Amino acid sequence: MSDPTPNDNQQQLIGSTDGIYRVDAGAGTGKTFAVTRRYARILETTDAAPEDILLVTFTRNAAAEMRDRIVQQTDYDLRQLQDAPISTFHAYCFRLLRRHGHTAPTALGIDDQIPDSLDLIEEQARAKQLFRRFMSRFADDHPEHADLLRVFYDRGTLHALIGELAAKGVVPTRNGWYRATGEPLTGDRERFFDAFTAANQPNEGANGPTNSDARGAVGGWDAGEYAPDAPTRGELHDDPRISRSVVEDAYDADRDALLAFIHDVYIEYLAFALSQNYLTQGLMLALAFVMLCESPGVRARIGHEYVMVDEFQDTNELQFKIALLLARTNNICVVGDWKQSIYGFQHTSVANITDFGERLQRFTSELNADCRRIDYAVDDVQTIPLFENYRSSASILSFAEQSLSIPATSSEDVGDPLAGTRSLEATNAVDNAQIDAYRADGEYDLVLDRIQHIVKNESYAVETSNEPQADEDASDEDRIAAEHERLGPPSYDDIAVFTRTRAFARGLLERAEEYGIPLAYEGGVELFDTPEAKLALAWLRIAESDGRRGWAVALERAGYGFERTQTILDEESYPDAMLQFRDELTELETLGGFLRRVFDRYGRTSVYADALVDHLTGLYDGTLLTRGETISYIEENLAAETTVEIDANPGSDAVTLQTIHGAKGLEYPIVILGNLNERSFPHYGQPPSCPIVYDDATGLRQTRMYSEAGAYPHVYRNWRHRLLQACLPSDYDEERRLLYVAMTRAKRHLLFTAGEEPSRFMDGLSIEAEEIDPDPTPESHSPIDHEPFTVDVPTSRDIPTRLGVHDIMDDSVYDNRTGGRGTAFGTELHDFAEAYALGESVEPANNDQRAVAQLISGLAGEFRVEETALLPLPGEPAVTLSGIIDLVHVTDTQIDVIDYKTDPDRVAHEEYRKQLSAYYHVLASVYPDREIRLQVFYTQTAESVEVTPLSTDRLRELAIAAMAGSSGES
DNA sequence: CGGAACCATTAGAGT
DNA sequence: AATGGTTCCG
């Protein structure tokens, strides 16, 4: 978006810099623009420097975008803002903790200090694995918790609960809880009984009062399912309600053992993690919080004059408190939209924004309870609504509002959640919106049919050009005329299909491939649960030790029946062709080569195959996984249901397919919201995988209890938890917000589809679904195949050491350089170059980028961008060099390897030669019949300098020297 | 209208 | 294991 004049409400935000503001920034209201303008204005109108303004966001991308926008709007350049606190919560707190928090654990009674080498773990699977290791030690050390440990099928599930408690701000000490942070664990009795009283009111029937909702929810109560102390059906009755006294007894029953257990697990896990030099993100924030509470000196030094928090609906309680501690004055501004809060499962708390004023006061008095930490007034909160929407047509905006009040179950009473809020106002002049709902048996075909119906169809016109734009003060007629001129029939990439579940997306993707309709999935994929991963796992097992399980899968794949497979396994009489293939595989040296060979053999060319190879070969810097390690890695991730991000092919004209969560923050001209099916959307929750659960109203509870009260010792369902659960209404607000988010992504047109069983959300829409007999026609869009460049050298049996190409380069040459524009500049340029080469519509932001653009547009032929290159150097010890090639330009006769360098001078030229030489040998083996040229492209002067390659022997020498050097230093 | 039995389903993903 | 819906009986 260009930078127009701010509208009135944006201007109000930009101009209001003193005091506390809650900004209701609705979808598409130019929030980023306004926030960055506000930042710029603070710099211009006060004597504040960038380090006085804290700007926190939720994602790294958002932080980077904010920084870029600020550079555009101020006199500061990227380098000057490099150290400015424009950051994610996590990155900022991690930095803080490392600088000032070495002794933070002592406040909790933990002797370990925070080491400089602290490892911050992001990968769920790894964190959980480490937690399991801790739990088995914990179980040995704590026989007194034996009864509680018995209720677990998988102790690893406790890991998520610890994370949830940390997000609430609950922090343990050796002897209890840090300050009063343990209070929420016992629950909020008043809140529970208020809810209970409401749910226990008799309903109004035609013939008098009928069962209360709570009474209805314990239908099917069978005391036999529970430990012997459970009340019978009759004892629950207090017609037509549930007996209050039974519920009170259940609520107040003794939970000391449970609380002690959770306390011990939590504090010892924290100590364990520190002793192992790592922290998870949640624990890290908790320690940063402790450090800020404990150190008035640090608060005084780093406290910021201005604090802004973006996407405030995605923060948790702990982050709210941290933000308060980081502010030196009450110049605090939180920006967000409660209607787009869809990350509750990541422990975010929508009440941070909906109850902002109340929480602000409560958290402040908590933080000031034992000493004064928050030294500014928090009683005056101004609310600024941003309501001018720059994305969607008016009819889409008004249609989307209903999503927040469609009930998810027959009994749910939603009320009017939008009462008192201001509706979004469209700025589109032309409203040509088509809003339609369709239903068919076979929803995949229905969606594909609708896509084909829409593409090139005038009645689904979208903006096909940025021109002409009417002046800001043009008359309505002129604006309408200009907008009409910009409209034209849509293409595939104007369309996005959103789904609630990945399963639906996966099915649709497969169907689209059958028809040859271009759909590109964007987002997380359960990569280890794909047929490709299972195939890879089978052959890895065959090649490694655990052959039987591998052969079973391979034989089944090959079409052998169950009986026959059993015989073959028992007799070990495997088919010759398969044995031969195994021998061939075991000869292969690299993991990448192994996987490729397996996928080639089975004709697997899907994106999953590519992603798997990329993921497994790129896992750890410096080392390659052995086959054995790969097997356990796949197994762990399969069990942990790990997802891996898959990139859609940019540059091509394809429909985007993603989950609603993945679509947050994005916009598309045409949105098809699929998957509006019973039990999919709205989604009715899942049984808790952890037998200990937390809820604000009830506190910590066990879903299962070990008891010896019956005839035999047994783990029973916990009747108290079951009863309390029944007394609380289910909450589907977040499902409705998902519906809202999905609808408000659409700029021009909005379609809904459902299959055999449309859900309540579909039925609840104010339009009727049209029945359709879908008939998609086959097309011929072939997927672009894509293989990373690898060379297989089956020689030594030793696993080669992996070395990055930069490791063989000598950094000391930079000591003599005259200038240098920082890594941020270089990264930006590379990102731009990648996007440009892939044909995305990006504009060069500076001279260097223009030089790259000119270079690329002058080249005819095929591009490979940011390609991974692996060069095995056989010998003793074996080494594999790895690197990423900026640009490979492929023509029929020659290959150009191009690497961009932003250096103003060329002191490192000889070092670049080493890097490019490695790429040379990789490409020489991939394209043996073509000439390969190496070019260093100096972006400042727009000059290409050709270099000649070094021999592999020379590269080997350099690699050996580099390994010796690094091991000698450490 | 209340109650019981039975059925189908089982998510989402930042740092 | 938990959830909401559906169906059927008294």
TrEMBL record:
Disordered, as annotated region: 199-221, 459-478, 773-796
At the top level of its lineage, which domain of life is listed?
Archaea
GO annotation terms (biological process)? DNA repair
Q: Which UniProt keywords apply?
A: ATP-binding, DNA damage, DNA repair, DNA-binding, Exonuclease, Helicase, Hydrolase, Isomerase, Nuclease, Nucleotide-binding
Which residues span the membrane?
A: none
Q: Which Gene3D superfamilies match?
A: 1.10.10.160, 3.90.320.10, P-loop containing nucleotide triphosphate hydrolases, PCRA, domain 4
Query: Which residues does the record give as ATP binding sites?
Result: A25, G26, A27, G28, T29, G30, K31, T32
- The Polar residues compositionally biased stretches are 199-213
In what residue span(s) does the UvrD-like helicase ATP-binding domain sit?
Answer: 4-393
Known EC number(s)? 5.6.2.4
Q: Which residues form the UvrD-like helicase C-terminal domain?
A: 394-665
Q: What class of enzyme is it?
A: isomerase
Please give the catalytic activity noted in the UniProt record: Couples ATP hydrolysis with the unwinding of duplex DNA by translocating in the 3'-5' direction; ATP + H2O = ADP + phosphate + H(+)
| Alphabetical list of Pfam families matching this protein | PDDEXK_1, UvrD-helicase, UvrD_C
Does Coiled coil appear among the keywords? Answer: no
GO MF annotations in UniProt? 3'-5' DNA helicase activity; ATP binding; DNA binding; exonuclease activity
Q: Which family does it belong to?
A: Belongs to the helicase family. UvrD subfamily.
* Protein name (Swiss-Prot/TrEMBL): DNA 3'-5' helicase
Q: Which organism is it from?
A: Halosegnis marinus
